[in-house]
Every structure is written in C-alpha cells, then in structure tokens.
TrEMBL record:
Membrane topology, as annotated: Multi-pass membrane protein
Broad class of the protein's primary localization: membrane
Source organism of the structure: Kangiella sediminilitoris
MF terms (GO), sorted A to Z: protein tyrosine kinase activity
Name under which the protein is recorded: Lipopolysaccharide biosynthesis protein
Length: 327
C-alpha cells in the first residue's frame, strides 16, 4: 500500500511538459514579420526623406567631381637590350673564372623588369618632375576647362600671376610641395603593368587634362629609354674597364678568352644603346589624347549613394519604431 502511494506521489511531483504546436510557432514568426513591416510602414516618411537626401547628395558629389582622362602607351621590351648574352656567358664560364679568383655574377633581372621598377621609384619620379616642370600641374591642378582648353589651377595653392606657391604649409612642410609630396601625387597618376601572356607593357597616365595625360605618357617612354640607355653605357664602360684589368691579372688562356668574349659583348651593348633611342622599350602603340573620361563613374556614385541612404533610413526607422514600442 505504501509502495502505491509512493508511486502516486512521484507521478504527481514529475514536471508536466507542454509541447507547443508547430503551427503556433509559425504564427508567431508571421506576427514578428508583420510587426517588422508595420514599423517600416510607419516610418515610411523617414525612409523616403533620408533616401531622398542621400540621392540628392550623391548627385551633387557626382557632378562636383572633375573629369579625369587616361592616356596609355603600349610598348614592347627590347630583347636585344641589356646583358642577356653577357649573363649567359657569365653562367657558362663562371666556374672557370672563379678558379682564378674572379666573380662574374649570374643572377640578373631582365632590363625590362628593372625599367618598370625604375619608373615607379622616387628618384626617377623626382628627376622626371624637375626635368619637365610638372610640380604645378601635378599638385595644384583642380580641373580641366574644355571651353577655355586650359588647366584650372587652385589659387589657394598656387598664384599664377606671381608664379609662386601660396598654400598654407602643413606642419613640418614648406610652402612649396616637397619631393615626397610630389612623388605621392605622381604615384596616384601613373600605372605600369605588363601583360603576362603577350609580354607587352602598358604605361598609363591619368589626369584632369587629356592633353597632359597624353604628353606625360609620351615623356615617360622617352625618359625611361634615355635613363636605361645611359645606365647601360655607364655599366658597359665600367665592365670593359674591369674585364681588361682582370685579363692582365691572369695567365690562363681559357679565362683570357672568356674575358675577351665578354668585352666584345659589352662593346655590342654600347653599339646597340647608341644606335636607337628606343633602347629598352619599343613603341607598339603611342599614347593618344583621350576623348572619353575614365572617372568619375557618376551613375555608379548616384546608385550606390541612393542604396546606402535607403539602407540607413530603414535601419533608422526600425530603431525609432522599437524605441517607441518599448515606451
């Protein structure tokens, strides 16, 4: 009897579990969605107003930004330039030369790759800007006037009449833009890329003025060819002098023959450098004055600005709705 009473007591003490019907959970989710849309609907004027403001602001920004144009020169690396043959000879006879205590060196990058990196360097950029007096159109240009066909200069930075810089110098800087500031600006304007399949190199310049963009791209090709040409002549002369000294230091006939052949290759390098102005890059397609802008993408700016305004306005309407419901 006591056992039966204990069992009844245990049954009474067991917690009762209620299973909520699945269709009721679905109704609650449906109610939550309805409540969400209700809050959005109540805040529709906020959404419309904020989205409209963003749309108008996007149009204003898109119209305010000046047009930019890109000119591109397509060039082909000159395979005859550089010490290709010299590197082969050095690799072939480097072991023989090392027996005589002489190092020829074999690990060299192609001259085209070196030239591409030189164009991106601070030193080359500084010389390029100084040689062509590009500081004003690079740093103080504001936009290009198609009606007047001239570059508009920011008068807060440069006084055209007095031909001097008038900007408020940043802390630690001078009134005139420093070499580093000009280099940073120039980096934003140029792009040097190589097609991996064809090997062709694109040298592009972007600027407010289509004429300036074309002119700078042309100058870049000319200047890098001149720079690499002068570099090759200098290195060839130094190599010839070095090899002639090494010939005097060794009596091994094989090594003397190697050095003689290396000297001949250096004379060939000098001859090739002096023959053509297109020493490192041959022009495949010269830069032309662009007729269509590349920036800004005004339609894209307006679309993205409007979408951003719509998203933020919906978020704002939801926050306001939830706050009001809690009160």
């Amino acid at each position: 009897m006591n056992n039966e009473n204990d069992k009844e007591q245990i049954v009474r003490n067991e917690p009762t579990t209620f299973h909520q019907p699945e269709h009721q959970t679905g109704k609650e989710d449906e109610l939550d969605i309805r409540e969400l849309f209700s809050i959005i609907w109540k805040g529709k004027w906020i959404i419309i107003a904020v989205t409209f403001v963003f749309a108008v602001a996007s149009v204003g920004i898109a119209l305010y930004l000046p047009n930019e144009y890109k000119a591109t020169a397509v060039v082909q690396p000159n395979e005859s330039a550089g010490g290709g043959k010299l590197s082969q000879l050095a690799g072939q006879f480097g072991g023989l030369a090392s027996l005589a205590g002489i190092s020829l060196g074999t690990g060299e990058s192609s001259d085209a790759v070196i030239a591409m990196e030189v164009m991106k360097s601070w030193g080359f950029t500084e010389s390029f800007i100084n040689n062509h007096n590009l500081d004003v159109p690079l740093f103080a240009a504001e936009e290009w006037s198609q009606l007047k066909n001239k570059l508009v200069i920011d008068e807060d930075l440069y006084d055209i009449q007095q031909q001097k810089w008038v900007r408020e110098a940043p802390q630690g800087k001078t009134v005139e833009p420093t070499s580093w500031e000009l280099y940073e600006k120039f980096k934003e304007r140029i792009a040097v890329t190589q097609d991996k399949e064809t090997g062709l190199v694109n040298i592009s310049v972007t600027h407010y003025s289509p004429i300036i963009a074309q002119q700078w791209a042309k100058w870049l090709v000319e200047d890098i060819n001149r720079h690499m040409k002068e570099r090759a002549l200098k290195e060839a002369n130094e190599s010839i002098k070095y090899l002639e000294e090494q010939i005097k230091k060794t009596s091994v006939a094989e090594i003397r023959a190697v050095f003689s052949e290396l000297i001949q290759e250096q004379h060939k390098t000098k001859m090739l450098a002096q023959v053509s102005d297109e020493y490192i890059f041959k022009t495949v397609s010269s830069a032309k004055v662009p007729e269509e802008k590349v920036k800004p993408k005004r339609l894209l700016i307006v679309i993205l600005g409007t979408l951003l305004g719509g998203f933020l306005s919906v978020l704002l309407a939801l926050v306001i709705g939830f706050v009001n419901n809690k009160k």
